[in-house]
């Protein structure tokens, strides 16, 4: 009978018996599907017609567990959402683990289980992966890299649609902002037991599959992760012939999140989200899109928060609650390190 270990050892990354046991007893146990059953170095997958989109991301969140998720769920959702943002239907993921010697095995298995569960719920394959174990002190418990492949239907290319953005287009956010970043910060500061909210970490293909909205009406989509809502919009407007006017009154921020931001000195506009999408759509189609979004649990708090303007090209402006207007600049420093 194979001996079970409570913690990950360097030998679990050596290529020998313990590494094979780890792959079999933890990773294949949760990730098994028709393509992961072999020990080949690459997965062979069916070919699908259409444009192929490919993305990769690395996750170094601290702490590993936070209200509403953990680094594993975050890795799956984050990669799926990057594919969704360019109009792709996510198809499969690869996962790479860099594990620090001494990580509790029960924590690793809980993380792997949550990855498998999220991928299964989202209808996406975890097709292949890799594991490395490094000496204690050489990384912080666990780092995860994920890459994803998706397929884009003809006429649904977000990159080409950006060129059609024009004055009067409406800006929509699919729900409350800053939940993820503040949930992680609360856990980091041992304040998570006092929260009235949790991370919004979730796979957005479930939302966009459900709303059956004609995607060629959408001109821009982006998940506002690091840099938050402000970061996405400043990047979009940079060197463009249009600007964006946000209305602070309509930007949805939970009172608990706003209070924690004020206490810790953060601006919700710059705080990371992991289950929201920023959308720009022609104004004549925005009401239809909002109605459809609100019919799904992941979009029930969707809100119209601003519009594209011809004045102040290249700038993001915010109409404040007290009636003034200020410029929203790109974040100049690292407001929230190790958040995703």
Q: What does this 3D model show about the protein?
A:
- With 340 residues, the chain is an alpha+beta fold.
- 30% of the residues lie in helices and 24% in strands.
- The protein contains nine helices and 13 strands.
- The strands form three sheets. Strands 8-10-7-11-9-12-13 form a seven-stranded mixed sheet, sandwiched between helices. Strands 1-6-4-5 form a four-stranded mixed sheet, covered by helices on one side. Strands 2-3 form a two-stranded antiparallel sheet.
- A hairpin with a 2-residue loop joins strand 2 and strand 3 (69-70).
- Helix 1 (17-31) runs parallel beside helix 3 (105-122) and helix 2 packs parallel to helix 3 (105-122).
- The longest helix is centred in the middle third of the chain and has 18 residues, at 105-122.
- It is globular and about 65 Å long.
- The model has no long low-confidence stretch (mean pLDDT 89).
């Amino acid at each position: 009978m194979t001996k079970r270990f409570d913690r990950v050892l360097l030998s679990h990354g050596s290529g020998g018996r313990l590494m094979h046991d780890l792959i079999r007893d933890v990773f294949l146990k949760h990730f098994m599907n028709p393509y992961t059953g072999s020990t080949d170095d690459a997965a062979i997958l069916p070919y699908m017609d259409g444009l192929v989109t490919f993305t990769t991301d690395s996750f170094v969140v601290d702490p590993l567990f936070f209200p509403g998720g953990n680094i594993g769920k975050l890795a799956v959702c984050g990669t799926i959402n990057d594919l969704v943002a360019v109009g792709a239907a996510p198809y499969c993921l690869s996962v790479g683990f860099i594990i620090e010697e001494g990580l509790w095995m029960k924590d690793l298995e809980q993380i792997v289980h949550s990855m498998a569960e999220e991928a299964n719920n989202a209808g996406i394959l975890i097709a292949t992966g890799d594991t490395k174990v490094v000496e204690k002190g050489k990384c912080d418990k666990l780092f995860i890299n994920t890459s994803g492949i998706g397929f884009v239907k003809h006429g649904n290319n977000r990159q080409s649609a950006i060129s059609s953005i024009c004055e009067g287009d409406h800006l929509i956010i699919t729900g409350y902002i800053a939940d993820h970043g503040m949930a992680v910060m609360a856990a980091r500061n041992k304040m998570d037991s006092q929260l009235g909210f949790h991370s919004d970490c979730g796979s957005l293909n479930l939302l966009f599959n459900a709303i059956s909205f004609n995607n060629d009406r959408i001109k821009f989509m982006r998940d506002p992760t690091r840099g938050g809502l402000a970061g996405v919009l400043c990047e979009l407007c940079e060197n463009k012939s249009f600007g964006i006017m946000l209305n602070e009154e309509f930007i949805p921020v939970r009172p608990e999140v706003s209070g924690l931001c004020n206490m810790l000195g953060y601006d919700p506009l710059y705080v990371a989200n992991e289950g929201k999408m920023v959308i720009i759509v022609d104004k004549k189609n925005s009401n239809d899109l909002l109605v459809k979004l609100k019919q799904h649990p992941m979009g029930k708090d969707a809100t119209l928060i601003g519009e594209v303007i011809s004045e102040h090209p290249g700038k993001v402006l915010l109409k404040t609650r007290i009636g003034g207007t200020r410029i929203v600049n790109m974040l100049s420093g690292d407001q929230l390190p190790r958040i995703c």
